[in-house]
Design goal:
four-stranded antiparallel β-sheet, alpha+beta, 63% helix, disordered N terminus, globular
Length: 525
Amino acid sequence: MSTTKKTTLWEFFQSLGKTFMLPVALLAFSGILLGVGSSLSSGAVKESLPFLDLLPLQLLFQWMTKIGLVAFIYLPVMFAIAIPLGLAREEKGVAAFAGFVGYAALNLSINFYLSVAGVLGNADLEQAYGVKSIIGIDSIDTGILGAVIVGIIVAKLHAKYYTFKMPDALAFFGGARFVPIITAAALGVVGLVVPLVWPYFAAGINGIGYAISEAGPFGPFLFGAGERFLLPFGLHHILVALIRFTEAGGTLEVCGEVTSGALNIFYAELACTTDTGFSSSATSFLSQGKMPAFLGGLPGAALAMYHCARPENRGKVKALLLSGVVACMVGGITEPLEFLFLFVAPALYFVHAILTGLGFMVMGLLDVTIGNTDGNVIDFLIFGILQGTATKWYLVPVVAGIWFAMYYFIFRFAIIRFNLKTPGREVETAEDAGEAVKAATTASGYNSDVILVALGGAANIVALDNCITRLRMSVEDMSKVDDAKLKANGALGVVKLDEHNLQVVIGPQVHLVKNEIQNLMPATA
């Protein structure tokens, strides 16, 4: 019985973390719009670059700033919609619709409680309860945590009731139509409870934030290292969301509004025309902390792996390593490089996680203030250079250069000293040579049909989905999964979480591979 519970809990957190990606992807894009628009419409840029001070251009930049606010302002409701959308197996559109219904019902119910309790209209009580306008409703600002709770409840209700059968007289309200109905009722009840229990939730999150702030420079270190340690298990999104969007990432008054969460604070300062500069207490958990490892360290590790490859294999691994470096530096996607050494040298991954944490700490100590989410070249240009020298962007190449050298020499020493089988180090046997992989002709560039066979065939796949770089699935029989064949056909790694759940690391084209496999499954099942 206990094994089943653990498997279910693990699967749940895996799936929950994956659902965060839809709003976070929009958030990253919105951040770029906001960064470009606000910086190019600022007085300092117009003064130094007068050719930008033209009405059509300035209107364009101001429009970009406004559109960039969409994810920042409506992020909680997006989470409330995205979580049931991502967790639903069937009727995903209904699940998403019910997510909005549930979030609105929750806040309307909270509003009812606050009205009856005499909180609304009393400035002191409103401040004590944290009352704000949420999608046009005076309610308690439960932030991302409240939206996540709504999303989880809606997902559970949807899974249970989307096939619910009503009596014939009420059949119209049965099935998928019943989901938003039961959602409105259930979240309406939850909304009456929230004002009673929310202060305790808020105190707990504030406690985490206080502990991190008390850790001083070690706070960003613990966050950066912790994110890398959780990444192989797919659970890093939970930690990231906690720091970026809740009080655990700090609370600050920006433009007269109290804002919580490191990324929320940064975006609020970015949009605030009366504020100058950014708070290092917030940006120390954001893009700047990733830049030493992403722009310097991992490319250094890739060069070390290339130099340590056997001479006859270097031509084969060059494209693999270069594509990994491009994905890391331009896209902020590190797994194509990390999974090249995670399994063959876990100790090196441990060193990588510690050095990533140290990168966060060092950038914070240097008082660099570059925000956003990805830690790539785009963030460096838009949120560093374009925001002026006050961000201390000029320190990034220096620190990244030091990290490049450290990673290169540490990786090269370890690979040679311990004969680690990083890409290109293996000796090709006659058997390996006889198993040449056919050239892929699919849109993804992968042999999706062979990958499906290596997974044990369609009959072995219970559930299939993907995140940014990985296929995430449940299988009937793990012994049917052929790790060697998966890696021979482009998989960077195979992570077996338990006896039924695994992840196959593909890379940025994973969504195309998943779609191709799904198209093949009905024909082969």
